[in-house]
Design a protein that fits this description.
Length: 447
């Protein structure tokens, strides 16, 4: 082993240890994001913590707050110069906020960041202070050891992802796009983690697509009147009928490329078949991940809120409902047509939409994902997949950036990882953080 090699190893070992420490300390900063700006606690503290960790090793940090909802929505961006600035930069981003928690349900305090039984415990451990800690540890290690990656790397640590990124990624894309200048590709959550398909067969799922989010408000107007009299134009009745029709509707199965490639990969690895006439049944055999994959077969529209009336004997003139719609890439127009048919002409519609995301699973960056994982887990297989939820990728797509979910974690076979997202006793294995740091170190240097 050359002297250079051993220095290099020491630097990497330090980064692995730091990733665990950073994850624990980030969890201890309560960054709950309820969507209501008056309840904000520690987003700024977390951003300042990250900025301090970066400037400590010599980065010039840019700290930005949107200011739209008052102070405190901290975002931190730094750039590490690569060997070849003419190549597009790689964006490595992660959000610092986390979803609310009911501490009474947990077996450890959710903001303890406890490191015990081989896990780091707490809110954000998998969504996504794990990836934030790993990329921060790698960013520090590269600077400390004077390592130049092949291309420019932009590290971004962001506010507000859990409420749609309006004060984080989306705001920065609209107001500070120069921070991402030259970025052509990005990695972040939710992907890169392993699932064990059968004994010793591990697949790492790389997110290449996301369903679109469309929050739909329905409004029906009718004739107001006394509750004791006949009324053929009752807004509550008309709205209820429309909501029930929509809630019961099953949208058609549409196989997107990401889902098709994922299922073909599983068949190749396990022999499990996915016949078109029993897709739901065969996908259920995949275990925990089936909840997620099952939701990427078709569009969904789930009624979630109803609002009408103010007194038992008064027929109101207006009734409203909210529907959470999730739409496959390429289905936007077809979905709207189908929806219009189900609802009919009397139902007014108001949309709050974030588009679907989709890229192909190929090219030099994907090859480097393969190499970086295989160097640490030689029997691994990488599969693309579609996320049923949404991430900040939706905002960065607006800058023409190709987005991947690649936050590498090698997980124990019996861990129901997908259940830990926003879940009780959220935790990440210490060994997985160390593994992910080694993979990311190689990936970011060579990408
Ligand atoms: Zn997340």
């Amino acid at each position: 082993m050359s002297e250079h090699q051993s220095t290099d190893d020491n630097g990497l070992r330090l980064a692995e240890r730091e990733a665990v420490e950073l994850a624990s300390e980030l969890i201890q900063i309560d960054t709950t994001n309820t969507g209501d700006p008056t309840t904000l606690v520690g987003e700024r503290a977390a951003a300042e913590y990250v900025a301090a960790k970066l400037s400590e090793v010599g980065y010039e940090t840019t700290y930005v707050e949107s200011g739209d909802q008052g102070p405190g929505r901290g975002n931190v961006v730094v750039r590490l110069a690569g060997e070849d600035p003419s190549r597009g930069a790689l964006l490595v981003h992660g959000h610092l906020d986390a979803v609310p928690v009911d501490a009474s349900e947990w077996s450890v305090h959710p903001f303890s960041g406890a490191v015990q039984d081989g896990y780091v415990w707490g809110r954000g451990a998998v969504d996504m202070k794990d990836m934030v800690a790993m990329s921060l540890a790698v960013a520090r290690r590269l600077k400390r050891d004077g390592i130049r990656p092949k291309r420019d790397i932009v590290f971004a640590f962001l506010a507000d992802e859990e409420a749609g990124g309006q004060q984080g990624a989306s705001w920065l894309v609209d107001n500070r796009p120069e921070l991402f200048e030259g970025c052509t590709e990005a990695i972040s959550e939710v992907g890169g983690y392993s699932i064990t398909l059968k004994d010793g067969v591990r697949a790492y799922l790389v997110e290449t697509a996301e369903k679109g989010i469309a929050w739909l408000k329905l409004r029906v107007r009718g004739r107001a009147g006394h509750g004791s009299m006949t009324n053929q134009d009752n807004a509550v009745t008309k709205l209820s009928e429309a909501v029930a029709r929509l809630g019961r509707h099953r949208f058609p199965v549409v196989m997107t490329d990401s889902v098709r490639e994922f299922l073909a990969g599983v068949t190749e690895l396990t022999g499990l078949e996915f016949p078109e006439d029993d897709l739901d049944g065969s996908i259920a055999k995949l275990g925990g991940i089936s909840r997620l994959i099952g939701a990427t077969l078709r569009d969904t529209a789930n009624p979630t809120m109803l609002n009408a009336g103010y007194k038992a004997n008064v027929i109101p003139s207006v009734a409203e409902a909210n529907v959470d719609c999730r739409i496959l890439p390429g289905r936007e127009e077809a979905f709207e047509r189908e929806l219009a048919e189900i609802l009919g002409p009397d139902v007014e519609r108001e949309w709050l939409s974030l588009p679907p995301v989709e890229t192909t699973f190929d090219g030099a960056l994907v090859d480097q994902m393969h190499r970086s994982i295989l160097a640490e887990d030689p029997a691994a297989k990488l599969l693309p997949y579609m996320l049923s939820g949404g991430t900040d990728a939706k905002s960065f797509q607006r800058l023409g950036i190709r987005n991947f979910g690649f936050a590498p974690l090698k997980l124990p076979a019996d861990l129901d990882f997908t259940a830990l997202f926003h879940g009780v006793d959220e935790r990440v294995p210490v060994e997985a953080l160390e593994f992910g740091t080694r993979v990311l170190d190689r990936f970011i240097r060579e990408a």
